[in-house]
Design goal:
heterodimer; A: mainly alpha; 0% strand; B: ten-stranded mixed β-sheet; two-stranded antiparallel sheet; 13 helices
Chain lengths: 222, 476
């Protein structure tokens, strides 16, 4: 199986061959209807994509869409068990499949906590800062583990224009406010200093008070 | 008349034995069912966890790894090197030399280029006096702190480490245990997962490393122990950790985090009074006391448990050392249950008072005593010639079959989850070991537990000699 996968994918990666060329090969035509093979091809493309960047990654993403492999993940995203949905979220967001975002938005409110957090992180992986918009009316807790993952995903995005996170400070959900504080701290947004001071003075939540005090002191140093 | 009374007694004995057997067996089944369910759920969820994000994050909790050492001169350098190479960024290692009589301090000073420092810290928990605190001149060992103190026992050494620690979480380990490289990442994660309750402690599975291949403090190859006694203990640990504690964790009634390896919220550990050096079961006692503190102060909390095989330790290979270990465990259980007797069946302490402690009392502490009583009454019936051999044989067959099946369930749970023993020959060894365990190992553990009771009555307080063979022989 590995030999077949290499024969099909290496030309995509190293000779810029498109899906049209690959699909015309005898090998692909022989295996195209084999479900097990297609699953293996799907997994191989996703795995390869994780190890390549730049133009190689773009070639793999294009192949993933044109070969309809994305449909395998989308099907799992729609109908799979919760753990299959989580895997599909991971695969689709890594492969930048924008059409999955509606499902991710839906699963951000799932009662299953693993699926919910995977959807939120997947959305941020897919959309970067734009994905944070879902948190505006978010009712579930964003725990410190999720905060660490969200910041990690945003770092990977490497977006140069960083928006202001003051909208998160206005949330009624204290854990979302804390995420906002952590993002302000991470991106050293001193322009939000006054908002943080105000928050510090008005909040009755001990954890938030402690956090804002710490961040205000840290931001004053910049 | 005497015959009728004897017959009634015989009937009552049979019924009470059956009732006890039924209760203990059904509790094992229920716990195993909950454990397997939680284990599978954990493994499924864990597929999506990327622990490496913690490595790069500034928000990862800072922690102090406390390793008490007493006469560990032969292996301490290698053990500390192995601790220094753990995957985690925000941690310090505090090796507490508990007044070793060997050359442990000399080895540490030379190997890690230590020099005395003035480190100020609060004496939150009273301990034996500290002779000196050392740090390395070499930046490569900047995470290492060595505390040289007057001998006071393991609990005292751990309390010293807690006092010296400058981080909000402490990981207490045995210096000679072998930790997986990602242990700290996995222990730290549960502390970050809750917003509405405080995680006060995390514990994990302890596995047995006898006959495994160890290189520079790292586990290179897992093998089934060559000797029978440690091999039986592998099965026993699998039963306890995979089919028992996982369920107690799910029920939020976990009483014990193994002394070989656990992570604690330092503030709560201090507020609860630290390790109790008056008991030999200080690991269990601390968890119970921390939980009691949280319940009495009406603070929402939980104790987390990680089923991954993160810590490997050496099990006793000789019957005499094994007997001493088990007697000490019994004394530790007795002492903890006695210290916290106020919680027993007290609804104020929720599941801890209503279920965990009574369970430990009946099925952990009393079980060997009930078994002894059963044996004596059986002998009495034999002598008086009123023994129902048919009933006896059926009961024996039933109990034996259940014990073996339960061991096989634990082995299968291991095979289908972590699969740490990849060789078929190892699985075969475990299979036949499970068949003979009820005849060889179980009676001895009952004897050791009864000796523990006797030693407690006599007023014995020590740990007893716990000589370890070390992993030297298996190194590659």
């Amino acid at each position: 199986m590995n030999r077949y996968l290499e024969q099909l994918l290496f030309p995509v990666l190293f000779h810029q061959q498109t899906f049209d060329t690959i699909s015309a090969t005898r090998l692909y035509q022989k295996l195209a209807n084999d479900v097990v093979f297609l699953e293996a091809l799907h997994d191989a493309v996703v795995k390869m994509h994780a190890t390549y960047s730049g133009s190689h990654a773009i070639l793999l993403r294009t192949f993933f869409v044109e070969s309809n492999l994305a449909e395998i993940s989308l099907k799992k995203l729609r109908k799979g068990a919760w753990n299959e949905k989580c895997q599909a979220i991971r695969d689709l967001s890594q492969m930048h499949i924008d059409s999955s975002s509606d499902y991710l938005l839906e699963y951000c409110n799932s009662p299953n906590d693993t699926l919910r957090s995977e959807a939120l992180i997947g959305l941020i992986r897919l959309k970067g800062f734009e994905g944070l918009a879902v948190l505006q009316d978010y009712v579930f807790d964003v725990n410190p583990w999720m905060i660490i993952n969200i910041i990690h995903q945003l770092n990977l995005h490497n977006q140069t224009v960083v928006p202001t996170f003051d909208f998160l400070l206005k949330s009624k959900n204290i854990t979302v406010v804390m995420l906002g504080c952590r993002l302000i701290e991470h991106y050293k947004q001193a322009e939000n200093l006054l908002l943080l001071v105000e928050l510090n003075q008005t909040t009755s939540h001990a954890g938030l008070k402690e956090l804002t005090t710490h961040i205000v002191e840290k931001l004053k140093l910049f | 008349m005497a015959g009728i009374v004897l017959k009634i007694d015989f009937f009552a004995f049979n019924i009470s034995m059956l009732l006890f057997a039924f209760l203990i067996i059904s509790s094992y089944i229920v716990l195993a069912f909950i454990s397997v369910h939680s284990l599978l759920r954990y493994l499924k969820s864990n597929e999506f966890v990327d622990y490496s994000v913690l490595l790069a994050s500034e928000l990862a909790p800072s922690l102090s790894l406390i390793a008490p050492a007493y006469n560990e001169g032969l292996t301490i350098e290698e053990n500390v090197q192995s601790l220094l190479s753990l995957n985690y960024n925000k941690f310090e290692i505090i090796v507490v030399n508990d007044g070793s009589k060997d050359n442990s301090m000399e080895v540490l000073i030379n190997a890690f280029q230590l020099e005395k420092i003035d480190r100020t810290f609060n004496n939150f928990i009273e301990t034996k006096s500290i002779k000196a605190v050392y740090k390395s001149k070499n930046a490569a060992y900047k995470k290492l702190i060595v505390v040289d103190k007057v001998n006071g026992g393991k609990a005292d050494a751990l309390n010293t480490g807690i006092n010296v620690s400058s981080h909000p979480y402490v990981v207490c380990i045995d210096v000679d245990c072998i930790l997986d490289k990602d242990t700290l990442l996995k222990l730290a994660k549960p502390f970050l997962e809750h917003t509405n309750k405080r995680i006060i402690a995390t514990g994990g599975v302890v596995r047995i490393a006898n006959s495994c291949i160890v290189k520079r403090g790292r586990l290179m190859q897992v093998n089934a122990p060559e000797k029978l006694l440690p091999r039986i203990q592998v099965i026993e640990y699998l039963r306890a950790f995979l089919l028992g504690r996982m369920a107690w964790s799910k029920l939020d009634g976990l009483l014990l985090i193994s002394g070989a390896f656990g992570m604690f919220d330092r503030e709560i550990a201090i507020k609860a009074g630290g390790y109790n050096h008056k008991t030999v079961g200080e690991d269990m006692e601390l968890v119970v006391r921390m939980r009691r503190y949280m319940l009495e102060h009406k603070l929402p909390y939980s104790v987390a448990y990680i089923p991954d095989p993160l810590c490997w330790t050496e099990a006793p290979e000789s019957l005499s050392i094994f007997r001493r270990q088990r007697s000490r465990w019994t004394r530790g259980t007795m002492e903890t249950l006695w210290i916290h007797r106020k919680m027993f069946l007290n609804p104020k302490y929720k599941i801890l008072g209503l279920l965990s402690l009574p369970y430990w009392f009946v099925f952990e502490y009393l079980a060997p005593i009930i078994e002894l009583m059963g044996l004596l009454v059986t002998l009495f019936f034999v002598v008086w010639g009123i023994m129902s051999w048919k009933f006896f044989a059926l009961l024996l067959l039933f109990v034996y079959s259940f014990a073996v099946m339960f061991s096989f369930l634990a082995l299968l749970a291991e095979e289908f989850t972590y699969h740490q023993y990849p060789k078929i020959s190892d699985f075969r060894k475990f299979a036949w070991t499970a068949l003979i365990e009820p005849f060889y190992f179980h009676p001895f553990t009952v004897y050791a537990a009864l000796r523990g009771n006797w030693e407690k009555i006599k007023g014995s307080k020590g740990w007893g000699d716990m000589t370890r063979k070390g992993f030297t022989k298996n190194k590659v």
